[in-house]
Specification:
The chain is an all-alpha fold and about 375 residues long. The protein is built from 16 helices and two strands. It has a two-stranded antiparallel sheet.
């Protein structure tokens, strides 16, 4: 995993350089803009960098890197340096895009915490209160966070363009840009479908609940978290149709498993590890596959209680624990674990004979275990 560690360090440095430049740019406008950059730094200082890692190993699985046990054609030294600079900027852009998505997601979910710290809109709300400004603090917090999310989207695009300008393969750069555009459209569509499901589920046929929950997983998370970064990296390296198809065949089932693990953590996760309150998805009313399966397995009286309490932001610890036990006792949690394991197997099988670099396949297989066995 040494290559992954070096990549994460280089991405962090590239993000820091970009934020330094933007801080200087905004300082010329007004010192009052400092909180925007400070909050961006806070968001981008942590995280597991999974999207950056998948972009890098997607690129590495296609690019010719000289390795004794990997019989792929090696890139020339100069081309390798330029290609590495390119993929680092692209990977950094994906992390900045992710930060923007988190800001907007936390506003829509009315989340108080992100990684154990106040969500961006809560941080701006606290700033308003501490300074004694006029008007509703929560309105200011929401508006400021929306603008921060928009800024991060713009900064992500700038970083992505920097990466494409450095790419030795011009056709690959164009293909990577198309993948990036598709990813942004799909994740926004998935976010809308997620929000829609929370508000419209009562008016939908019961038989549609699970297929609709699965569609949200695919478009809100699976493609954006795993499949798209892999495809972006592979395209940037000039991957063939067969190579990109192999990356997608690995990435989509793994992305589904990734989000199912996230859904489990949203209900059962340890707040000391996740940085979010226990049962946060229950308070937010997330209509996940886990909840859909539980509703299928519960007796009608338990379903009515679940439907009545799910989405109530005032749920206390006792009520959350009761719902957790109800979902667990239904057998839904065990079934989701089996679905996760199945999707990981499908993903690993897709790597077996894929036309990709051997060492990169090993790293991708290791990443598959890491992203689906995590506790936060």
């Amino acid at each position: 995993m040494a290559g992954s560690t070096r990549l994460v360090d280089r991405v962090a440095a590239r993000i820091d350089d970009a934020l330094q430049a933007h801080q200087a740019e905004l300082a010329q406008v007004s010192p009052d803009l400092d909180p925007l950059v400070a909050q961006a730094r806070e968001l981008l200082a942590g995280g597991k960098r999974f999207r950056a890692l998948f972009a890098y190993w997607g690129w590495r699985s296609v690019a010719g890197i000289p390795e004794a046990h990997d019989p792929m054609p090696a890139l020339e030294a100069d081309s390798l340096d330029a290609a590495l600079d390119s993929v680092v900027s692209v990977a950094a852009a994906l992390e900045v895009f992710h930060a923007a998505a988190l800001v907007h997601d936390d506003i829509m979910d009315r989340s108080d915490l992100r990684r154990g710290r106040p969500a961006a809109h809560r941080a701006f709300e606290a700033l308003h209160r501490s300074e004694g400004w006029t008007g509703p603090a929560d309105d200011f917090g929401t508006s400021a966070a929306l603008l921060l999310g928009d800024l991060l989207l713009a900064w992500s695009d700038e970083l992505f363009d920097t990466g494409l300008a450095d790419a030795p393969d011009r056709a690959g750069a164009g293909a990577a840009r198309a993948e990036f555009a598709r990813m942004r459209t799909e994740v926004t569509a998935g976010q809308y479908l997620d929000m829609l499901e929370e508000h419209s589920w009562r008016s939908r046929p019961e038989t549609e609940a699970l297929p609709r929950a699965h569609r949200v997983i695919v478009y809100k998370s699976a493609k954006y978290s795993v499949e798209a970064p892999l495809a972006i990296g592979g395209a940037l390296a000039g991957g063939s149709l067969a190579q990109l198809a192999a990356l997608r065949a690995f990435g989509l089932p793994l992305g589904v498993a990734f989000q199912l693990r996230d859904d489990m953590l949203g209900v059962f996760g340890d707040p000391a590890v996740t940085g979010k309150p226990s049962g946060d998805d229950l308070r937010e009313g997330k209509r996940t596959v886990l909840i859909g399966l539980a509703r299928q397995k519960m007796p009608p009286t338990a379903v009515r209680v679940l439907d009545e309490l799910l989405g109530d932001p005032s749920l206390d610890e006792r009520q959350v624990q009761m719902l957790q036990n109800t979902v667990r006792d239904s057998g839904a949690a065990d079934q989701v674990e089996r679905i996760i394991a199945h999707n990981v197997r499908v993903a690993r099988e897709a790597l077996a004979d894929a036309p990709l670099g051997g060492s990169a396949r090993e790293e991708l297989a290791a990443l598959a275990e890491r992203v689906t066995r995590r506790e936060s």
